[in-house]
Amino acid sequence: MLALPDGSGEKTMIRKRHMFLNEEILKANPNIAEYMAPSMDVRRDILAVEVPKLAKEAAVKAIEEWGHPKYRITHLVFCTNRQLRLARPRQPACQAPRTQSFHHRFTLSQNGCLVGGTVLRLAKDLAENNRGARVLVVCSEHTAVTFRGAAETHLDNLVGQVLFDVAVIIGADPDPATERPLFQLISASQTLLPDSDSAIEIHLKEVGLIFHLHKDVPKIIAKKIAQNLVEAFEPLGSATGTPSSGSRPRRTRDPRRDGGQAGAWRGRS
User: pLDDT of 114-134, one tens digit each?
Assistant: First the structure.
């Protein structure tokens, strides 16, 4: 774990970074620390073990914070941009008892940094369209596939090395006696921004996962963010985000299995 000096995280809001790669591993595998050196086999071997392990840690914390038995989890959504094998990751943290049918599972791989919003959209629909559902969402990312030596010509590659891992439980109609939602999910959607082609790219190569971030990404987002907010709040009855009297949020769910408004309980590694 690296603790940043005071003031170094003023813009990023990051105070601590947790790193798996230590001096011993880097000395044994020097190619990982090079900017562009073949190293995929080593990276893949690390990820095959560590991605499921990190996912389990986050899931255990989320379930403990939720305070209910894990067999009440009905759906599992797992996402990672770091899993480089076809076999599904093991899920011992949320494995149901043998007498309980296993969860409905959804796996999202290689989706980029937008996947956090994607899994929330999926979990929201699952929770609201399946009465009593409790959806465990686990995002597990690992810097072993992106870590490399810095290059003055490719500073944007450093951005891809600061992602984190999280687990959250999504449900509808919380039990007021035992469940305390952190927040409600009113709406979840995605937008393709104009002129954003090739603005953010990820390439998986023999040297690892290469991250490219165009210098104009902040400008591209800034041009569209106001309109996106208006479009997000209009279904609630007001472009300012304050619902008008008598208005109700627009919900995309099957009315035959209406499960109420989605809420979230969170744990983080």
Answer: 777 888 889 999 999 999 999
The answer on pLDDT for 250 being more than 50 is: no
What's 112's DSSP letter?
G
**136 in any annotated domain:** yes
**β-strands 134-139, 75-80 pairing:** parallel
Full residue range of the structural domain in which residue 58 is found: 23-84+100-188
pTM (predicted TM-score): 0.72
CATH number for the domain harbouring residue 27? 3.40.47.10
CA-angle at 51, arms to 46 and 56, nearest 5°: 135
Q: Give the span between the Cα atoms of 37 and 206, in whole angstroms.
A: 8
- Looking at residue 266, its pLDDT comes to 55
Active-site positions read 113
**Domains in the chain, number:** 1
